[in-house]
Amino acid sequence: MLTLSKWILEGHQNLIRKYDILFIADEVMSGFGRTGKWFGFEHSDIIPDMICMAKGLTSSYLPLGCPMVSDKIAAKYGDSPLWIGLTYNPHPVALAASSAVVNIYETDNLIANTNKIGAFMEKRINELRTQHPSMGDFRTKGLLGCLDVIKSRKPYELMAPFNASASEMEIMNKVGAKLRELGLYTFVR
Fold first, then answer.
1. Residues 6+ apart with CB under 8 A from 96
2. What is the bridge-based pairing of β-strands 50-53 and 157-158?
3. Which end of the chain is less congested by CB atoms within 10 angstroms, N or C?
């Protein structure tokens, strides 16, 4: 079955290939196993020209970012440097941390574990949604997900609107504080 997100990604790839536009996948949040694959784009049949990655490289213990580029882009810089001006480029301690973290992803089977825990989380959230009227739509891949907190189901109304002002976020800030108090660290908006 072709999901909407897969259809959109593959449609974009067809369009950008037609007009020779580079396809850049931002994997800072979705990379390194969070979706149950090394990178989120791997859930579709797309091939990026560039992948931007960061947090998962060192498990956020040290600052490190990396653009991974296709052979076509790399060939352009075969005999000359790509000046990108990063502050921590290439910091030996961050690179050593990255090497150790990637090794742990592999040896401890963390990506396979993401799928296992993600399936449990999805099942449990869907069970809880039947009991709690404030739990709305839930979208997830592996352990990267989004749950709508809602005022009502009919009409479907979010607790705080998209791009809410500071005053409209008052209740969601309280929800976020309670979640942190209970030991759940999440992004609330």
1. none
2. unpaired
3. N
Reported confidence tier of residue 1, pLDDT bands at 50, 70, 90: very low
Reply yes or no on whether the pLDDT at 43 is more than 80: yes
The terminus-to-terminus CA distance of the chain in angstroms comes to: 31
Match 């993600």 to its residue by tokens.
118
Whether cis (ω within 30° of 0) applies to the bond prior to 81 is no
- Which run of H or of E encompasses 67? strand 66-69
User: How is 78-92 classified by DSSP, letter by letter?
Assistant: SSS------TTTT-H
84, 41 in Cβ contact below 8 A?
no
Q: Six-digit token pair at 87?
A: 């502050």
Question: Which pTM does this prediction carry?
Answer: 0.81
Q: CB of 56 within 8 A of CB of 73? A: no
Looking at CATH, the fold of the domain delimited by 4-107 is given as Aspartate Aminotransferase; domain 2 (3.40.640)
CA distance 147 to 184: 14
pLDDT at 49 over 60: yes
The whole-number pLDDT of residue 2 equals 47
CB 10 within 8 A of CB 46: yes
- Beta strand 144-152 with 135-141 is antiparallel
Q: Which residue, among 36, 35, 93, 102, has the nearest Cα to 68 in the 3D structure? A: 102
**pLDDT, tens digit, for every residue of 114-137?**
999 999 999 999 999 999 999 999
